[in-house]
Amino acid sequence: MKTFVKFMLITSVGVALVGVVVHEVSPQYMTAVMSSPSVRGVTLAVHNLIRRLYPTPSPVEPKTIKKKRERLFTPEELRKYDGQAGNKGPYLAVLGSVYNVKKGKKHYGPGGGYEFFSGRDASRAFVTGDFTEAGLIDDITGLTSVDYIGLDEWVKFYKSDYKFVGKLIGRYYDETGKATSYYYDAQRWITEAYRHKEDENQEKKMFPPCNSEWSPESGARVWCTSRSGGVERDWEGVPRKLFSPGQSKPRCACVKSLGPPSHDPKRVPHDNRGDLDHPNIEEYPGCPPDQLTCLVKEE
Ligand code: HEM
Predict the structure, then answer these.
(1) Which domains, and CATH codes, for the chain?
(2) Closest residue (by CA) to atom 16 of ligand 1?
């Protein structure tokens, strides 16, 4: 466990350093790197870790807190808050909520790695990493579940680390400050994303991913252990193709086959069927049903 914690710390510090370098090099390079969904997943993890390790200190609270009326910004007004020399701010908006990000000027001010977020609502780019003008937009339609969760993490981050100063009139709020129907759509997409993640976690527990390897001589091999897929359990299971709803391709899953422990490590008993009769699973062609490891032919 200690080794695991050490590994995670070293990896995260490494990734964070790469991030600093990448940010300073060029937004265009970031845009290209971030087009990969797996990099987007890692980015989410990196920023969550940074937020946990280095929470942004809050400014000293004034003695008397005056409750100010929440301000409404037009896009043109917000544009003036880009933090550039002679201008106000920087302020930025996420899902139509405007935050004063002055205390993060090194990121959002002139020359900062994220200055392009200032003076506008570029919600979509927070998760796509597309920092071109075409990508720096507030339309978040059609993102993946991972992206919606990532975006919600950014919303939580700005709420807790920066001062909310008002609402942006446009996609998320109307000119009276009332939430638009798009705002409610966005909230629904985020809620559905969390639900989807929960379903995936349940499925991963029931059908943990297999170990796999590939060699030019024997091709792909899949096999199950009691820790495969990062799911610790007291059973190993047998490899099967799992067809998950909404996925175009099956994946290899370890499927529980209950029964007394076998004395032959390569065999599992098949007197109790466990989950072997689940309708979404299929045997690998040419692999005996009770085999713990299968050679998989390309399809
Ligand atoms: C979708 C792409 C990305 C977006 C939208 C993004 C956004 C941001 C933002 C807004 C901040 C400033 C947060 C604050 O106010 O404190 C930040 C900081 C940071 N990001 Fe990113 N980032 C992205 C990709 C990456 C990648 C790929 C890495 C590393 C592999 C990374 C590593 C970091 C680090 C280390 C910091 C802290 C820098 C410091 O405190 O000096 N970021 N990021």
Answers:
(1) 67-201 (3.10.120.10), 207-296 (no CATH)
(2) 104
